[in-house]
UniProtKB/TrEMBL annotation:
InterPro entries: DMSO/NO3_reduct_chaperone, TorD-like_sf, TorD/DmsD_chaperones. This is Molecular chaperone. It comes from the Bacteria. Keywords: Chaperone. It comes from Variovorax beijingensis. Pfam families: Nitrate_red_del.
Length: 205
């Protein structure tokens, strides 16, 4: 996590996609600590995955990380996504897909995860439809060793079913929230990366 290297070859681009999903999962699951913010301090300003469309959103994210500290971004995360009762912004797909938490979209997700041989780890307190958990599944579907599961067809199907329709709404809500600073930049990069993913999947036919 200490470097975000630009990638070139087709294999490297797949590695880069997996690393981006891993980074997004980490940042959406919890506020970055001082070590991760420090990694942004030495990160290249070139986007870590292919696509000039990502360059400016990545530069903005790197700049936002360099312009904050662990305490400030932790407070921002809590203000946006934490607190007692209803958060300012939900990070769960079911909320956007059905209007309710722990609803039918979560049941469908659990069925799909079981089919892929995946399950929530005991140490994970959030439900499987948390955006960070979904990004971690995408990382696995790119970088996993089981070719029957980790392939483009599975990536496309999972992304289309469980992320594509509602992720832009989440990103817009965060980007427009007056309490969002670092996370506004993260939302911008996340949305841009998702658009590149959709374009890539569309090319598969």
């Amino acid at each position: 996590m200490s470097q975000f290297p630009p990638m070139t070859s087709a294999l490297d681009e797949e590695i880069a996609r997996a690393e981006v999903y891993g980074l997004l999962a980490r940042l959406w699951y919890a506020a970055p600590d001082a070590d991760l913010l420090g990694a942004f301090g030495v990160a290249p300003t070139e986007a870590p995955a292919a696509g000039a469309f990502l360059e400016e959103p990545w530069r903005q994210l790197v700049g936002a990380a360099r312009g904050t500290d662990a305490a400030a971004v932790h407070a921002e995360y809590d203000a946006l996504f934490g607190g007692m009762g209803k958060p300012e912004i939900y990070l769960f797909g079911s909320h956007y897909l059905s209007g309710f938490l722990n609803d039918k979209p979560l049941a469908q997700l659990r069925t799909d995860l079981a089919r892929l041989g995946l399950a929530r780890g005991e140490a994970v307190s959030e439900s499987e439809d948390h955006v960070a958990c979904l990004f971690e599944v995408m990382r696995y579907l790119i970088a996993g060793d089981d070719a029957a599961v980790a392939n483009l067809a599975q990536q496309q199907a999972f992304f289309a079913t469980h992320l594509q329709s509602w992720l832009p709404t989440l990103c817009d809500a965060v980007a427009q929230h007056p309490k969002a600073h670092f996370y506004a930049s993260l939302a911008g990069f996340t949305r841009a990366f998702a658009e590149v993913e959709v374009q890539g999947f569309d090319m598969l036919g």
